[in-house]
Amino acid sequence: MVKYQIVVESGADLTREYVRAHPVTVVPMHLNVAGDDFRDGDFPLQGIYDYYQHTKHVPKTSAPAPDAYKKAFEEARRRSPDCIILHLGYSAATTAAMQNAHIASAGFADVVHIDTKCASAEQAVLVERVVAFIEKYPNVEVGTLQDQIHDWISRCRMFFVPDNMAYLRAGGRVSNAAYMGASLLNIKPLIEMVDGQLVCEQKYRGSLKRIVSNLIDTAFNDYQWENGQFHLIYSQGLPDTAKRQAELLVAEHDILTPDWRQTGAVVTAHCGPRTIGVCGMVKR
């Protein structure tokens, strides 16, 4: 009998293959496109770009409703009736997901909610580490597990550079004045997830090649990554030349095979095409 079942939002961008192979239930987030509601995964990523090109708007994203979480908790219990349900939630500072999950868990015993303060690939990396830990120590006590997870959360890092700030402007994340100024000066913001919120910590200027170089420099000058806990992020449309450049630069830091994590629809709707970034866990 599996002691723990994991519940996570689709915005964590876990692959379907991973979810099928592990005790993980995914609750779909939503996109609203011109008044039509789509579950995350049911609307193509290219459709996000096409929609912006035609309308200059981006899909609105929203958290799962309480009923969706209730169904996920019921599914987890069907898999393992006596399990502890561990909800590793999408950053509560960015969405109502955590609030809705708490509402849904009323009446369910042994549901533990943890705000990961993460999103997208960063959240996926955390979930995968938690699952691996549980598989290694299946009888770990919930209090010990929570302490370990909070330690990992404190060491999670993710930052990325959108190629086109128009998506951030269309989604209300930056002002029109900031967008115009950045466009005129060819400035790209380095956006980092800090304590669950997306903030602009630095700005880069120049070509994509220069931005990739600056990004990798920042990653290794500012942080010491745990072995096996460094990953590259991209959104659909990033050129293969940029990927190869990033891989070669990362290899200079003795990471020979960094894996690539693609952003799903929820994050892509805000960052747009050709985004590149990094995520992982740093050393204590």
Give the helices and strands, then pairings:
Blueprint: E1 4-9, H1 16-21, E2 24-27, E3 30-33, E4 36-39, H2 45-55, E5 60-62, H3 66-79, E6 84-89, H4 97-104, E7 111-115, H5 120-136, H6 142-155, E8 156-161, H7 166-170, H8 176-185, E9 187-194, E10 197-205, H9 208-222, E11 225-234, H10 240-251, E12 259-262, H11 265-271, E13 276-282
Parallel strand pairs: 1-2, 1-6, 6-7, 11-12
Antiparallel strand pairs: 3-4, 3-5, 8-9, 8-13, 9-10, 11-13
Q: What are the main properties of this structure?
A:
Hypothetical Protein Tm841, Chain: A,domain 3; 4-stranded parallel beta sheet; 42% helix; 2 domains; single chain; alpha/beta; globular; Rossmann fold; 11 helices; 284 residues; 6-stranded mixed beta sheet
Summarize the structure.
By secondary structure, this protein is of the alpha/beta class. The chain contains 11 helices and 13 strands. The strands form 3 sheets. Strands 10-9-8-13-11-12 form a 6-stranded mixed β-sheet, sandwiched between helices.
